[in-house]
Specification:
The chain is an alpha/beta fold. It has two domains: 7-185 and 223-256, NAD(P)-binding Rossmann-like Domain (Rossmann fold, 3-Layer(aba) Sandwich); 186-222, no CATH class. 46% of the residues lie in helices and 14% in strands. The protein contains nine helices and seven strands; from the N terminus they run βαβαβαβαβαβααααβ. It has helices spanning 16-27, 41-54, 68-78, 101-129, 150-169, 188-191, 194-201, 205-213, 225-236, and strands spanning 7-10, 31-36, 58-62, 83-86, 132-137, 175-182, 247-250. A seven-stranded parallel β-sheet has the order 3-2-1-4-5-6-7, sandwiched between helices. Helix 1 (16-27) runs parallel beside helix 2 (41-54) and helix 1 (16-27) crosses helix 9 (225-236). The chain is globular and about 55 Å long. It starts with 6 loop residues before the first strand and ends in a 7-residue tail after the last strand. The model has no long low-confidence stretch (mean pLDDT 97). Bound molecules: nicotinamide-adenine-dinucleotide. Nicotinamide-adenine-dinucleotide binds next to helix 1, helix 4 and helix 6.
Length: 257
Amino acid sequence: MTLRGKTAVITGSNSGIGLGIARELAKAGANVVLNSFTDRDEDHALAEEIGKEFGVTARYIKADMSKGDECRALIEKSGSCDILVNNAGIQHVAGIDEFPAAKWDAIIAINLSSSFHTTAAALPVMRKAGWGRVINIASAHGLTASPYKSAYVAAKHGVVGLTKVTALETAEEPITCNAICPGYVLTPLVEAQIPDTMEKYGMDRDTVIREVLLERQPSKQFATVEELGGTCVFLASSAANQITGTTISVDGGWTAL
Ligand code: NAD
């Protein structure tokens, strides 16, 4: 229960990695704020379940991470923000010459600019509290590239750059900023890429997973949302006090290739 009394705000956390991170931070004792752009009963129920399961305060706050003012309002409405996990993200796969401009704008806004806005709003809150952790969920695609993912790769490389600047601007304070770079994790974001890939290559689901998705992941296994949550708990712990401005790959060896 190392994080008892801390509040963690996790963007894009009603699904996938964000939800897994929220659960692991709550398991470590943190109060959590869940977020997405919807405002459904099941969103609030997720927070309620986490609160009950781990004995922490858990809330769900609707905010659209494609809009700068809503990103900032999320931090304001959260009240406190000791740990900020910038996780919200979307994907679109197409060649540059066919990439819809609106998709480019949405990916840059949600996957990159949202982290600028939430961080800008959270740093004064962390400074006032005298402690803080900013954890950006980048990607192996923040360090390497793949064809047909121009907006995603550009945004994730941007997240790694923003991480370094945030770390330098807070270097003399008890605040750290790091990026986690996951390889493939089997979440709805990745599930959505499977049918198109099956059709494109004329492969069945298992073959797509083995020969396309995990082709660059030497472990031949997906990373799990629990493993990513555990990495966040580590980065929020005192063992990570001097870890700042860097990337931690959770990618089964992808970026060692
Ligand atoms: P996911 O689709 O399961 O979750 C994405 C989350 O972001 C959801 O909660 C969704 O509601 C939220 N979101 C989307 N648009 C939003 C908006 N406008 N405002 C607020 N919330 C919004 O996907 P995931 O795989 O869990 O991805 C989470 C993060 O991890 C993303 O940043 C993604 O790029 C990154 N990532 C994922 C993988 C992977 O293999 N799944 C690998 C590397 C990095």
